[in-house]
């Protein structure tokens, strides 16, 4: 079975721009979660989608948004980029969402200059 | 504020030794606990999940959970240099819709 895929793998953007990241979960998995990882803060939860519905959102500003499509693929959007948004963005999929085991994709490394 | 506490390390052990990684958590409602391994420059990889008190063994790895003490640990027997990585523990939030991660313990196994 193919794993979680994320595109693009690397991005360089300038302050004020917006960015869209994409995640395709493991086949059959219906839940997709997004995390931001930085050296200082570690892995922080952004949001989780299950069957196209956002079920939970972490403590991030409204510039961070996401959505999930009927095929379970998910996108995450960050508007008005700030230098502090530079991070590794990770998507994880799980079979049914909730506390079931989550499997991470390779991540998208975003650098904001 | 739900929190996970891990000793950041580095934890250094010689090859063949037992590495012991510990994690405490603040939320008594949590039911699910996970250990992830993350190599430098890579994404986290799930290595163990544990849901009930006691020990769970998988190969060289043993996870131990004590809900009363809000403590979970990971033992790695016969440590190998390839085990050198950052180990993250995580638990689910009350709604079961998110994982709360610790900041990880860096393990270094010397040959």
Strand % of chain B is over 45%
> Average pLDDT value of chain A?
94
Helix/strand structural class of chain B: mainly beta
End-to-end separation of chain B in angstroms reads 40 Å
What's the helix and strand layout?
The complex is a heterodimer of chains A (113) and B (111).
Chain A: E1 5-7, E2 10-13, E3 19-24, E4 31-38, E5 42-50, E6 53-57, E7 64-68, E8 74-78, E9 87-94, E10 103-104, E11 108-112
Chain B: E1 4-6, E2 11-14, E3 19-25, E4 33-38, E5 45-50, E6 54-58, E7 61-66, E8 71-76, E9 85-92, E10 99-101, E11 105-110
Parallel strand pairs in B: 2-11
Antiparallel strand pairs in B: 1-3, 3-8, 4-5, 4-9, 6-7, 7-8, 9-10, 9-11
Task: Characterise this structure.
- The complex is a heterodimer of chains A (113) and B (111).
- Chain A has 113 residues and is mostly beta strands.
- Chain A is built from no helices and eleven strands.
- Chain A has strands at 5-7, 10-13, 19-24, 31-38, 42-50, 53-57, 64-68, 74-78, 87-94, 103-104, 108-112.
- In chain A, strands 2, 4, 5, 6, 9, 10 and 11 form a seven-stranded mixed sheet that branches. A four-stranded antiparallel sheet of chain A has the order 1-3-8-7, with no helix packed on it.
- Chain A is globular, with a radius of gyration of 13 Å.
- Chain A starts with a strand and ends with a strand.
- Chain B is mostly beta strands and 111 residues long.
- Chain B is built from no helices and eleven strands.
- In chain B, the strands form two sheets. In chain B, strands 2, 4, 5, 9, 10 and 11 form a six-stranded mixed sheet that branches.
- Chain B is globular and about 45 Å long.
- Chain B starts with a strand and ends with a strand.
- The model of chain B has no long low-confidence stretch (mean pLDDT 92).
- Chains A and B meet through β5, β9 and β10 of A and β5, β9 and β10 of B.
